[in-house]
Every structure is written in structure tokens, then in C-alpha cells.
Known about the structure:
The structure is a homodimer.
Chain A: E1 2-13, E2 23-31, E3 34-40, H1 41-47, E4 48-63, E5 65-67, H2 86-101, H3 104-120, E6 123-128, H4 133-143, E7 146-153, H5 164-178, E8 184-190, H6 198-211, E9 215-219, H7 223-233, H8 237-244, E10 251-255, H9 261-270, E11 273-276, H10 278-283, H11 291-296, E12 301-303, H12 316-331, H13 339-345, H14 348-353, E13 371-375, H15 387-393, E14 400-405, E15 408-412, E16 415-416, H16 421-436
Parallel strand pairs in A: 1-4, 5-6, 6-7, 7-8, 9-10, 10-11, 11-12
Antiparallel strand pairs in A: 1-2, 2-3, 4-13, 13-14, 14-15, 15-16
Helix pairs in contact in A: 3-4, 3-16, 12-13, 13-15
Amino acid sequence: MQNIDTLVHAKWLIPIEPQATVYENYSIAIDKGRILALLPSEKANSHYKASEVHHFDKHALLPGLINTHGHAAMTLMRGLADDLPLMTWLNEHIWPTEAKWVSNEFVYDGSLIACAEMLRGGTTCFTDMYFFPEEVVRAAEQAQIRASVGLIVIDFPSAYAQDADEYLRKGLALHNQLRGNPLIKTSFAPHAPYTVADEALQKVNTLAEELDIPVQIHLHETEDEINQAVKETGKRPIERLEALGLLSSRLIAVHMTQLTDKDIQTLATYGVQVAHCPESNLKLASGFCPVQKLIDAGINVALGTDGAASNNDLDMFSEMRTAALLAKAVAKDARAVSAEQALRMATINGAKALGLDKEIGSLEVGKAADIIAVDLSALETQPMYNPVSQLVYVANRQQVSDVWVAGKHVVKQHQLTTLDSEQLCKTAQQWQQKINA
Amino acid sequence: MQNIDTLVHAKWLIPIEPQATVYENYSIAIDKGRILALLPSEKANSHYKASEVHHFDKHALLPGLINTHGHAAMTLMRGLADDLPLMTWLNEHIWPTEAKWVSNEFVYDGSLIACAEMLRGGTTCFTDMYFFPEEVVRAAEQAQIRASVGLIVIDFPSAYAQDADEYLRKGLALHNQLRGNPLIKTSFAPHAPYTVADEALQKVNTLAEELDIPVQIHLHETEDEINQAVKETGKRPIERLEALGLLSSRLIAVHMTQLTDKDIQTLATYGVQVAHCPESNLKLASGFCPVQKLIDAGINVALGTDGAASNNDLDMFSEMRTAALLAKAVAKDARAVSAEQALRMATINGAKALGLDKEIGSLEVGKAADIIAVDLSALETQPMYNPVSQLVYVANRQQVSDVWVAGKHVVKQHQLTTLDSEQLCKTAQQWQQKINA
């Protein structure tokens, strides 16, 4: 008998790797924050003596979901302005509110609420793009959620920085401060081709290669963006980024609703990662990302919620379902993006996009113990022909009962162990009153 | 002080009529199954002495949701076959399973599970199209859910009936048996233009006019359906139904993903009702219903889940969200189908489609007390700038805490009062084992 930290038994275990595998009556042994073994429950009990033992007789265990695009602090603007076109929404609602309110406190409070929402809903790792990334880090560390925090770069002044150089300088300082941090990584986050000039994009590229971190950017989000770019530069944004040397497997291209076959070929050639945000793309009427075409071209497609101001939630279960459903109608083929593929997009593909697939994204021996338990006992998920189908096409995030990040039990029977939900509700209400005043 | 049955106080009350109205700290007085009054909570306490008083300090009250298209019994095939084109799905999976198993018992058990799922998720009225409608009635009466049960007509033999005449005969007998039933109404349900011949469609039309009940039919669901019809009859299905005299405000046209501007004009001219099933249309890659164009043409658009075998749930919250999100991208306009419009589609528009808008679909004095309470207190629905936005874009059906149908408290603090959920789970599992064997 080997002494270990935690032993979790479950009715179903979905490891993601190997593909299309569902183990029944299986267990996962966790020690020092990592996965030590996956084995049938009857063997587990005779092999391991664990300090903590959990039984999930009616649950599926799977890797924590990975949200590859968002703006956590914008949770404070959830539902502030709906049913508006992107530029009206930005110019008349989001940007004025941000100009007035964005501050260290706003970003910390909003990010903390977002971390709570994500953990409760089974997301164990997120990436972020927003002002005051130091505050996003502070919130993520307090919540004990894994993150790839974006070092934002944008060519307009904000309460956080005055110009691209200052954004970059502050970003680098944060990156240095986080070296060796086991949970929090960084990526560069130039906002978009239309808000960041060539010079800053080239600096970002050089630094990203030097530091070996990803670059995330909003790209080909709307038809207007493309038309404007062609008019002003003679190039589609992808062509401009290619010329600047930014296209590589280091680049996470977010949205990508406007793609020609040639664009797709270019993305595939450079191994660019795509962060697909179906609900945000629908809500802002941005367009349809041709997901199955991307997959067929060998491109890695991950999933993101985008910010709660344009979604309006940080719910990766809903995002998986929408991704699987929408891809079929867009491809005119009901076989496009199966339940299995949607679940991979939300797990291992997300890990690949963030360069973290050696660490997370599947339940494999040696990887970090980022695990969620989903209760599949209710009437709504019966009968149970296939747990993966139920997880993607039926289950809601309210069915996530328990969550571990790096072996730490951060959600226990639906309750956060690292944060106080009631206090966070009050914080949200206080911001609502201020913003509405 | 007036003695009444029930008084319900709530933080928010969303009556649907008048439009775009949200009352705060409001109450609803219920007596003999009907809405007696809507008034500010402080006044309510001095006007009424109720046998039962409920306080919902963190909830929104709204009319029960109306599911205008489904096949309740198919819940037993939830997740049996996913990610397949419509005809493969039907020919190789659904129809063989039905041929083997559909019986009185199958339909009763499946429908009872569906009724339980719908009530728990805030749906208080549904329409149905399936074999053995007598069993759907039996299940709905036991659950105490309101229904418009379809009298199915189809030109192929089943365990239920041998030919169109027998389907019609059995349907009429059921209709007669239900005369005067306060909860259960009927509608004719010819399956589709491609499965019902002209003669039977004309009989349906004559009888529907005589009995003054709706006719529901799958229509323009896929491109193949149109192409096949044009090849075989020289007419698009809508044109054929027009020639047969079926187009009228009595007709509920289900799906409608393939519509020319001329088709839309025709629908508007006759006042045809549309039951939009966005999740089923996506999952089967059937196409996109041009919802905003229909609304602009003055057509009443209601919402349906379709059966759980092609959705895979009977969740009207999810359907509202998908309808609102998808319509924007299809219309290329983020203003299309606002949260308010989506909520109307799931309530008053559904009531209109079923010819029941004098009875249900809004919280108005004199209407039946079909009411749901949705808990909006959790972190996930904070901050709260606009309850309607939260209900449509964020809330999940798990947040429905209480449900009344005709004043009867059928879901109390998430628990069904009319049915035993655990027993129904066991029933679902037994069918799963049989069907899988």
C-alpha cells in the first residue's frame, strides 16, 4: 500500500487521451498535485492509502475545462448593453464605461468574480486580455485557478498605460515577477491589428520569441475589420501579420469568423492556433467561424467564452454545446464537430493553444491534477447511452460538483473553498450601483 | 381583506404583457387556478389573506414557458445517435428503434419522463407529435402539465395504426374523449408533406376547421425535402399546402429553415404560425431559419425544442438563448431577436401559435396561473443590470425553483410534487438496457 494525498473514485472517467475513451468504475490517484495513476476502482483500493478519499458514484471525472479567450474583469459589465452591433456596443457603452471605471480595484474585483464563476462551472484554466493584468494575477492566485494572463498592448492610452511602450514595459515587469510561478503563466496580448501599429507588433513578436510565450490577438472578428484593413493597408489582417512575421504556432488567433480558403491555408502552413468563441460571435453578429474546415486543414481549434459583456457568461459547457451544434449547420454536415471533438476543443486543444499541453488538458499520469466531477444522475441526463454526449449536448455547468486545480480541492460539493461567493455577489452589486449611477 | 388561495411575492415580476415591463417587489394573487391580481407587494399584504403565501426575494416570476414542438416519448432515445445527417439518423437509428420498441408503454414512460424534465425546467405547456397520443395525454394528466397533444397522421403503418384513415379515426376518438378537459387540448399533427398524401392532408384540414383546432406539420426542414418535392410534385411544399388549402393561422409550420422571400410573403399573407427549433436545426445541420425576416414580415414565431433525440434536451432556457444568439448572426445584425423578443417567443408567441393566448402566455388578470420562479441570486447572474437579459443570456433551467400550472404548485423548491424523479430515472435506465441489448 502506497501513501498518497487523494484518491477519487468515479462511475465514469474520461481522460481525453487516449481519444474516444470512457472508463467505467475507475479511479484517479493524486499526489503532490499531480496524477499518479489511473486505474480500475477495485485495484485502486488495494494499491493506495490516501489521506482523502472521494466517491463519485453518479459522476464523470474529466480534465478541467480551458477557456482560451476572455476579459475576466468585464464580468462587471455583464448584461450592461445587449443586442447592439460591435462598434455601437464598444463606442457607446463598453469604452465609455471602461474610461470612467477601469482601475486596479475594478480589474481585481471583476477578475475575482470571473474566477469564481469559472471554477464553479468547471473551468480550471483561463487566458485573459485586459488592463491591469497584475490584478488579474492577484485574483487568479487568490482563487487558485490556473491562468495564462495576457500582457496587453494597445495603441491608445488608458488608466493603465499611456502608449505601447509603457504597456510593454509593464507587461515585461509582470512577466519577470511571475517566473517560476506554477499556476500563472503569461502571454502577450496585442488587442487587434486595428488598434496596434506595426512597430509594436514587431516588438511583441521579438519579445515573445525571446521569452518563449504565446501571443493572443483578436483577428478577423468582423467583415468591417477586413474591409477597413484592406482599404487602409492593402492587406487582409492575416497577410499583414504574415508580413510582420507574427504567424506561427505561438500565435493564438481569436475569433476568425472571416476566412477565405487561402487564409485557412496560410493558418495551416504556419501552425497558427485558433480560439473559437461561438457565442460571442453570434451575439455580436460577427459571423461564423468555419470550424470544421479549420479542423480538416489540421489547425488546432480551442474554445473561449470571450468576456461576460458579450456572451453573457463564462460557461464552457454552454460554449462546447454551441460549438458542436453551430459547426454542423455552418458545415452543412451533421457529422461536423462531434461531441467528442467539442470536448477536446475545451480541454486538450486549449492546452495546446496555450503551450501547456505537457501540463494540462487530459488526465494522464504525470500531468497536473486539474480535474472536475460532473453529476450525471439527474433525470435530465437519463437515459445514459453515452456520457460524452450527455456532457456536451445536455449537461449544464450547475452539474459540476467538485473541482481540483493542481490537486487542490477548490470546489467542494458546489462550494468554493478559496473564495466567498456571497461576498463576491455583494461586490458585484456595489459595482452595478456605481456604474448605473 | 379578501380570502384567496395563494399569494406569491417576488423581487421581480415579468408579465410579458404589457411589453418590456419589469415590476420590482411585486406580487401575484391566485385564486381557483387563475390570476386574480398583480400588484405591489406592500399593497398585496393588506388586500389579501391567502391560504398559501410564498416569498421569492431573489427570484423573477414569469409565465411558464411554452414548448411548441416536440416528441416527448423520444426522450427515451436521448443521445442514442448523435452527429449524423437527418436521413441516416432516421433510417439507421431512430426508425429501427421505433419499429422495435414503440408501444403504449414506451410512449407513456417516455412522455412521463419528458413531462418531468419540462416542468423542472420551467416549461408549463408543450405540444407533441407522436404515436399513441392517448399515452401522452395520460402522462401529461399525471404530471399536471398543460399540453396540446398532436393527433398524428402519417402514411405508413406503425404499432399504433395501419393507414391514414386509422390514424385519423383514433385521433378523432381521442379528441372527443378530451372535450372540456381544462389542461389538455388537441391539434392535428400530419408528420410532413413527404410522409402524408394529398387526400389525408385535405381530410385533416376539413376536420381541423370543423373542430377549430390547430394543425402542426414539419415543413421546409431541409434542402433535400424541398428538392425532392420540386422533383416529384413540381411544387415547393409550401406551394403544395397552399393549393390544398392548409395555409392559415391555424397552421403551425415547424422548422422552416429553407425559405425564399416569396415563401415568407406567402406565410405572412395567410398568417401561418412558425415553430422555430434552433438547436435541432443546428444539430441535424438542417439549416438556418431566417427568424428576424419572419418577424419583420409580421409572422408569429414561437419556439420548440423538438425531441430529445435531436437536441438533446427539452430545455426552453437553452432554446431561448440559442434563438436570440443565432438570429443575430443569421441576420448579420446584433439587434435581431433581442432578449425581450426571445422571451416573448417562448411565452406569448407560443400561446398564440397554439390558439391559447386568451388562457396562457403572459401574467395577466383572468389568465390561468401558469407561473415559474427563477432564482437569480447566484454569482453567475450578477451584476443585475437587467433581469430579462439574465434570464435569456445567462440563466440555466437549474435556476427554476418553483412552478405552478393552473394554480397547482407542481414544482416546489426544485422538487416535483406530482411525479417521483428517482422512479423516473430508474424507468429511463430500464428502457436504456432494453434498447441497448
